[in-house]
Amino acid sequence: MTILVSASCALMLGPIALVRIAGPGFKDLWWVVVLGGALWVMAPLLCMESSRRAPIISASSSRVLVTALTPTGWRTADLSELVRVRLFTMPALFGSGIIMLIVTDSHGIRIGLTSVESQIAVRSALEAKAHARTNAPRLSRRAARQLYGGDMSIWSVAVLPVALGTALFAGVLALATFVAMG
């Protein structure tokens, strides 16, 4: 994720420096700024489980493994060694949009879980870790509300993601215009 954020910032800010330093010969790089802005949106979607195949959940006495098909291939995360759990939402114009739990294990494997079965497995793994009194993973408030119930406010589900997306789009558009105008 850090690599994608760095690449996105470099793609958005690099052409501005080129235009200011090298002159107007680099005005045609406005599309690179737009590509850099798109990376922010595409990054979480690269680890999302495919809806074509349900995730495979295998449990033994000490480990709970979730294997899911993502756009980048098969990924297996160890839910008994979770480090971070957070929630990613992308509202849709019609329908429910994407609500995805992004889990990261101690090996750095990140999977975006959208199915109910996998979210139940995450909840049971978190409860088992709490009973064992081991290091608890970082759990965002939004992910905790999704896992343990509770009201999801319209602010956190729809208004905030749309506002942030609109601000990002406007910023990328302004940067691309700035580069194109030279």
Q: What can you see in these coordinates?
A:
The protein has 182 residues and is α+β, with helices and mostly antiparallel strands. The chain has 2 domains: 2-45 and 162-181; 56-150, no CATH class. Helix content is 49%, strand content 22%. It contains 5 helices and 7 strands; from the N terminus they run H-H-E-E-E-E-E-E-H-E-H-H. It has helices spanning 2-22, 30-45, 116-131, 141-148, 154-181, and strands at 56-59, 64-70, 73-78, 82-90, 98-105, 110-113, 138-139. The strands form 2 sheets. A 4-stranded mixed β-sheet has the order 6-5-4-7. A 3-stranded antiparallel β-sheet has the order 1-2-3, with helices on one face. Helix 1 (2-22) runs antiparallel to helix 2, helix 1 packs parallel to helix 5 and helix 2 packs antiparallel against helix 5. It is elongated. The protein starts with a helix and ends with a helix. 21% of the residues are buried.
- Count the domains: 2
Provide the structure class. Answer: alpha+beta
Poorly predicted spans: none
Strand order of the largest sheet: 6-5-4-7
Helix content: 40-55%
Head-to-tail CA distance between termini: 31 Å
Secondary structure: number of strands: 7
Please state roughly what percent of the residues sit in beta strands, choosing from under 5%, 5-15%, 15-25%, 25-35%, 35-45% or over 45%: 15-25%
Mean pLDDT equals: 76
Determine the number of helices (DSSP H or I, runs of at least 4 residues): 5
Largest sheet: 4 strands, mixed
User: What is the radius of gyration computed over CA atoms, rounded to a whole number of angstroms?
Assistant: 20 Å
